[in-house]
Design a protein that fits this description.
heterodimer; A: 119 residues; mainly beta; B: 113 residues; 9 strands; 46% strand; globular
Chain lengths: 119, 113
């Protein structure tokens, strides 16, 4: 079946511009996550949605970053006034709703990311 | 979530078993051990997870020590396509906890022809 889809695969823009990155999760997955990965590092958590609401946005680095998931499916990560330090691969993952009151027995499935380059 | 320690890199001959170790000495009773891998220019790929018992699936086996302070991911017959960075992650399983994964820098496994 179809996996997590992220568009665009690459985005190059100038410092100060606004960008939107899109994530289409696996059908039926209610949980959605955004991560950011810098060169040579593991992915770092940004935000987690359960349904339409952001259950944890503690990883967003500052108020220039915002994410939405209005219908509980597709999500958009928005970055305002981009800076060169925002250059990274932005990864999206989705998972089924966890069961038995726990959080961690449903694996996350990742897309291949959007490579964002700020000139 | 407990921290993990992995060697930065390992080599393995094609066709041989690759055994990737992970130390998680501060793991608590309700934390799962997860393994992901990331092939160059792709997103992380889920491999396997376990809580106490050893686990096996079509990709790999996960051996967790009895005290749960360390684990080993085993790829039984490594191929060149298994060359990737392998991440060992421990995650809390109590209700209401965020599902986030905390990645370290992983182990770069290089499978040699």
């Amino acid at each position: 079946g179809a996996g997590v889809s992220q568009t665009p695969s690459n985005k190059v823009t100038e410092k100060g511009k606004y960008v939107e990155l899109r994530c289409d999760p696996i059908s039926g997955h209610t949980a959605l996550y955004w991560y950011r990965q810098s060169l040579g590092q593991g992915p770092e958590f940004l935000i987690y949605f359960q349904g339409t609401g952001a259950a944890d946005d503690s990883g967003l680095p500052n108020d220039r970053f915002f994410a939405v998931r209005p219908e509980g499916s597709v999500s958009t990560l928005k970055i305002q006034r981009t800076e060169r330090g925002d250059s990274a691969v932005y990864l999206c993952a989705s998972s089924l709703k966890t069961t038995q009151g726990g959080c961690c027995n449903q694996p996350q499935h990742f897309g291949d990311g959007t490579r964002l380059s700020i000139l | 979530d407990a921290k993990t320690t992995q060697p930065p890199s390992m080599d393995c001959a094609e066709g041989r078993a690759a055994n990737l170790p992970c130390n998680h000495s501060t793991i608590s009773g309700n934390e799962y051990v997860y393994w992901y891998r990331q092939i160059h220019s792709q997103g992380p790929q889920y491999i396997i997870h376990g809580l106490k018992n050893n686990e096996t699936n079509e990709m790999a086996s996960l051996i967790i020590t009895e005290d749960r302070k360390s684990s080993t991911l085993i790829l039984p017959h490594a191929t060149l396509r298994d060359t990737a960075v392998y991440y060992c992650i421990v995650r809390v399983s109590y209700g209401g906890a965020t599902n986030k994964l905390i990645f370290g820098t992983g182990t770069l496994l290089a499978v040699q022809p």
